[in-house]
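@here heads up, posting the sequence + SMILES for the zinc ion run so it's all in one place. Ping me if the SMILES looks off, I pulled it from an old spreadsheet.
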Amino acid sequence: MSGYKKFLQIGVALDPIHVGTGGARIGRVDLTIVRDPVTQVPKIPGSSLAGVYRTYVAMAEHERNPNRQVNGRPKPFYPDCAGLGLDEQRGHCRQPDCPVCTVFGFARGAGQEGGFAGLAAFTDAHVLLFPVPTRQGPMWVTSPMALQLIGLEVTGVDRNAAYLESDAQNPLNLGWLLLPVKGCAQMTEIKERLEELSVPDYIYDRLALVPDRLFAHIVNSNLEVRTSVSINPETGAAEDKALFSYEALPRGTVLVWEIIAKNPAHFRIGSQPITAVSNPDDVHEKAKQAHSYLEHLGIGGMGTRGMGRLKVLYENSPRDETSVESAAATSSAASEADPPEEESDE
Ligand SMILES: [Zn+2]
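bot reply: prediction finished. Complex structure tokens:
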């Protein structure tokens, strides 16, 4: 049996999503979101994904088995096996039959042997399709680099233009940017692939391809920027000088990421074999339990302001190895040595 298996996941933002950098201020925005250092396109780091998946899988296991015991003592999956596990009393259970601790790993505890990196690793979630207002209603913008993440090689998209189904006389505005319209010969192939990945037709029928260099500009100039006010919890009134702004991926953004599931048969915890899961498909099945929680509880900060819900559209294995390999080449997979990490809320 092979060492690992990769599972492609596609999701759409039901609310604006804010996964923050932790307070860096850029230009007029106080709370910025994480960007890819090379492309400057916003993304959700794999470490943030791993943290929320862990929390939600722990909640799901707790719901199924609220009275779990370890060595004759109550040891609930949630909250004990969620989080960073640094608390000695309420820390990770570290049991080979725990679906949370085997899939997501556990920290090295005080006076205990080494930690375990976990059987599931998460790539960053990248923007695949990005909604932009135009004169003709919303269009979803993508680029050859983004489409590589779903195994498509698109060529000929290199001029400063919006590539649609066919050439057109009138230019198209993508936000502030006015671009000539050209035809893309591969549009049918792209739509078919998106349909296969359960992207809704109201999205794939309104695609605009742009060259990679324009994609980052268009995404960054069409992010949602909101202004809010901090509320003093004691008085319930707005704090003085507490106006702040934050940016977010807009509702309707389609994201793509991968779950890399290692083969449990190749690992031991202490000297014991792992019994919670028996193959990479099991690992993915366990991780997938987070998806209904992602849709209802969301990811990232500002959850109390109605942000962050992410609906997973596609959660299966990619159709062939080529698409997996090309997607892996362009996304930064979390390394095996990564310690389990908790989501940062803001
Ligand atoms: Zn556990």
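MO: The chain has ten helices and 18 strands.
MO: One more: The two ends are 41 Å apart (CA to CA).
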